[in-house]
């Protein structure tokens, strides 16, 4: 069972807690993490881009000149791809990039990803975050905890002021404990979780 230190906002150790081994101490499955993260990236794609092919471009209904006798190369339409304002070869069309992943795979990938953060000493726990919604308060906390790389701040539902205070810090992403994904974990080097959020994660993935 992983044993991890809990800090306060000033960077001082206040206690140690035991994390649920089934959630934070699972075997790391890198291929599964990659598969789920790739699917989540694909599901974010809109797939709305569209370009006109030669059959859709306006104009070009007649041959620009006769087939022989002009000295020019033969041409069938001024809307062929080699012409200016012509159609596009193999033009991209709207499509659905989404990939389906079942709940068990998604849950197993999340547990594996967050366990890898614990194993790599990249998961930190803070007892609570007290803030008036000011950016300097969150910046001071990150400095005290020596979190200088990209950091994911996992919060509980009552930490709206902490979300607002983190918005102006480029290297910090915030997410609710019930919405954190594998992609969120993989896009950030360090993960800072409140003690309340740890309990929510354990309850969700036990």
Number of strands: 6
Structural category is: alpha/beta
Estimated radius of gyration: 27 Å
CATH topology term of the largest domain: Ribosomal Protein L4, Chain: A
Strand fraction: 5-15%
Which geometry do the CA atoms define? elongated
State the helicity in percent bands.
25-40%
Count of helices? Answer: 7
- The CATH architecture term of the largest domain is 3-Layer(aba) Sandwich
What's the number of structural domains?
A: 2
CATH H-level superfamily title of the largest domain: Ribosomal protein L4/L1
CATH class assignment of the largest domain: Alpha Beta
* Separation of the first and last Cα atoms: 14 Å
* Low-pLDDT segments: none
What kind of sheet is the major sheet?
6 strands, mixed
Order of helices and strands: EEHHHEHEHEHEH
- Main sheet: strand order: 2-1-3-6-4-5
- What average pLDDT do the residues reach? 92
Describe this structure in words.
β4, α5 and β5 form a beta-alpha-beta unit. The protein folds into 2 domains: 3-45 and 99-205, 3-Layer(aba) Sandwich (Ribosomal Protein L4, Chain: A), CATH 3.40.1370.10; 59-96, no CATH class. With 206 residues, it is an alpha/beta fold. Helices cover 33% and strands 15% of the residues.
Task: Offer a quick outline of the entry.
With 206 residues, the chain is α/β, with parallel strands linked by helices. It has helices at 21-24, 30-43, 103-119, 135-144, 160-166, 182-186, 195-205, and strands at residues 3-7, 13-18, 123-126, 151-155, 172-176, 190-194.
